[in-house]
Amino acid sequence: MVTPAQAPAVVTEPTAGSTRRRRGLTGNLLFFRNRKTVIGLVILGFFTVLALIGDLIAPYDPSLPSEVGLQPPSADHWLGTTLLGQDILSQILVGTRGVLFVGLLAGLLAAVLSVLVGVTAGFLGGIGDEGLSLLSNIFLVIPALPLIIIVAGLLPDAGGLTVALIIALTGWAWGARVLRAQTLSLRRRDFIEAARANGESTWRIIVFEILPNLTAVIASGFIGTVIFAILSEITLAFMGVTNISEWNWGTILFWAQSNQALALGAWWWFVPAGLCIAAVGTALTLINFGIDEFVNPRLRTTGKNAKILRARRIRARVGFTPVYRGTGKEQS
Amino acid sequence: MTGEPVLEIRNLSVEYGYDADAVRVLRDVNLTLHAGEVLGLAGESGCGKSTLAYAATRLLPPPGIITGGEVVFTSTRDDRRYDLLTATDDELRATRWEDTAIVFQGAMNSLNPVYRIGRQLTDAISAHRPEQSARQRRDRAAELLDMVGIPADRLRSYPHQLSGGMRQRVMIAMALALEPQLVIMDEPTTALDVVMQRQILQQLADLRTRLGFSVVFITHDVSLLIELADRIAVMYAGEIVEDATASQMYRTPRHPYTDGLLHSFPPLHGPRQELGGIPGAPPDLMSLPRGCTFAPRCRVALDRCRDERPALTATAFADREPHRRVACFQHEREAAAIPPSLTVM
């Protein structure tokens, strides 16, 4: 169709200097102009700071019992205390590091593994593809959580690193399959054939031609694995499988559960940790939306336009072009 | 002029983009299509030909937006008359294909590769005529294929088993399935070789005579239009600059741009001659010149052309050519620019 091709052609034409500079700026900062991304980054940034300095700013030793016993939030203990009189705010602050460390490390490792296996399989084809697909299919059916429980049982002092490694090892296969499928589809497209025809090396084709087209899939795989890893780690801690003297949000929930916080009406014991988990999950999902809109050039203006469209009550749809008579734009 | 107006486009304006940087791609376009007429839309790439056709049918994809005007469809069979721009989604859905059908630019790729073409033809019919029996639909599909010169046993073929020209003809058949009053063809023959192009156009002309629908034919091939179209509208930078019958436009182009277009393809007869072409490049729609949009490339531009924008009005010879319109201050100038080789043919 001529119409979609026309619009970009018009946009790329040289314009007056001031317009172009404005465009360049918005182009670079577009990722941060998206409100979803900004909210997500702010939340994640907040927790990252807590992860870094949490144990320095924690007002109390999170494990130290005191005589105050179970107390609701007060000026001394902002988020209240446990049955043993431990400060819950300190537990959350100290516990943030473990949660984010395991989540991000596992997500990163799984993303690297899935890219290596998935893209290679998709690009190679033939026997290499068969072998790597078999490998990822095997890993796909290994249940992560029971495996971690068994390993954690074997290694009594399994820490965050072990948990992260196991989650990464069991969690990469799904991403690899998606990437393989996408690579298979990309491999035969005209621009790849053109790159082959003008003599680009295989590595260059993979790294410069194929990978940028997979960014959205890789990013969503990464974010998905991070969320999965955080939830797994918290689940393990909550079940008491991992070391319960190492603080993370799951440990708090474990103690709250085993001391029947709900029956005692001690909501402050489990609600903050639950909200923190929800907040991190939300932040990662929002960032994922932002990445999606950013890496796909076709979606880039979506976020920018959404606000205007909402304000003017226009619904931009394919097949039913909106009619808006109120722009009042002068005939230039 | 043939018959009553079928489609009247009045002051249609279209922009791409929603913010302050929006590009105004159509500026107050006026165009009337009469019953049974073949109207050619010609112009360079990016001048708004397709945009005009898609905007008039509300099919323009985002970020296109219609910012003004009206598009009135008048049925010649009953007394329905409605403005497409104010129609609701359901109304649009009901009238599409019934009243206006479209053959898309890449029509060859408009067929779904996993269904037989018979199924795809009957689907189009059943969506609008649910009361018909399967047998009626199949008969109609066979009749349609026959109409475009494809044997009816091809109904059982998959799209990949047909050649490009055949697929294109299937799409034309599909467009005619519900006997629409208006068929919009967006460069339907661009992807085909000239032999196939000729065959299809010949068939199209025959079908038009038989069924009496109107056609909007979009192409940048002016020579094709001169043969095929009753009337031609030449577009430049989002505006119609000349609107005349094919023979008038061919013999005496009144707008210098039309003149340039006519000089940019070689005549098949007559002595060898240098092709003129049009110097310069299409204007940037983001920053159009103040006066006539064509002035920077125009051979005969005056100072006035750079300051004022000429409106699309009747020519100075309105008594001789009543329906002709042109947007040029100098259209009265002697049209001696046409070489004899072109006018003789």
Return residue spans of chain B where pLDDT drops below 50 for at least 5 consecutive residues: 336-345
Count structural domains of chain A: 1
Query: Structural class per helix/strand content of chain A?
Result: mainly alpha
CATH T-level fold name of chain A: MetI-like fold
Question: Main attributes?
Answer:
heterodimer, A: 332 residues, mainly alpha, MetI-like fold, flat, disordered N terminus, B: 345 residues, alpha/beta, Rossmann fold, 8-stranded mixed sheet
Structural topology:
The complex is a heterodimer of chains A (332) and B (345).
Chain A: H1 2-12, H2 17-33, H3 35-57, H4 88-124, H5 126-141, H6 144-154, H7 160-187, H8 190-197, H9 202-239, H10 249-258, H11 261-264, H12 267-295, H13 300-312
Helix pairs in contact in A: 3-4, 3-12, 4-5, 4-7, 4-9, 5-7, 6-7, 7-9, 8-9, 9-10, 9-12, 10-12
Chain B: E1 5-16, E2 23-34, E3 38-42, H1 49-56, E4 64-74, E5 81-83, H2 89-95, E6 100-103, H3 117-128, H4 134-147, H5 164-175, E7 182-186, H6 194-211, E8 214-218, H7 222-228, E9 231-236, E10 239-245, H8 246-251, H9 256-262, H10 303-307, E11 313-314, E12 325-326, H11 340-344
Parallel strand pairs in B: 3-8, 3-9, 6-7, 7-8
Antiparallel strand pairs in B: 1-2, 1-4, 4-5, 9-10, 10-12, 11-12
Helix pairs in contact in B: 3-4, 4-5, 5-6
Summarize the structure.
Chain B: One of its GO terms (cellular component) is plasma membrane. The complex is a heterodimer of chains A (332) and B (345). Chain A is mainly alpha-helical.
Describe it for me?
- The complex is a heterodimer of chains A (332) and B (345).
- Chain A has one domain: MetI-like fold (Orthogonal Bundle), CATH 1.10.3720.
- Chain A is built from 13 helices and no strands.
- Chain A has helices at residues 2-12, 17-33, 35-57, 88-124, 126-141, 144-154, 160-187, 190-197, 202-239, 249-258, 261-264, 267-295, 300-312.
- Chain A is flat.
- Chain A starts with a helix and ends in a 20-residue tail after the last helix.
- Chain B is an alpha/beta fold.
- Chain B has two domains: 5-233, Rossmann fold, CATH 3.40.50.300; 237-344, no CATH class.
- Helix content of chain B is 29%, strand content 21%.
- Chain B contains eleven helices and twelve strands.
- Chain B has helices at residues 49-56, 89-95, 117-128, 134-147, 164-175, 194-211, 222-228, 246-251, 256-262, 303-307, 340-344, and strands at residues 5-16, 23-34, 38-42, 64-74, 81-83, 100-103, 182-186, 214-218, 231-236, 239-245, 313-314, 325-326.
- Chain B has an eight-stranded mixed sheet with strand order 6-7-8-3-9-10-12-11, with helices on both faces. Chain B has a four-stranded antiparallel sheet with strand order 2-1-4-5, covered by helices on one side.
- In chain B, strand 4 (64-74) and strand 5 form a beta hairpin.
- In chain B, helix 4 (134-147) packs across helix 5 (164-175) and helix 5 (164-175) packs parallel to helix 6 (194-211).
- The chains are: A mainly alpha (332), B alpha/beta (345).
- The A-B interface holds A 1-4, 6-7, 9-11, 13-16, 19, 23, 301, 304-305, 308-309, 312, 314, 316-325, 327, 329, 331-332 and B 15-19, 21-25, 27, 45-46, 49-51, 54-55, 58-68, 85-86, 89, 92, 104-106, 186-187, 284-288.
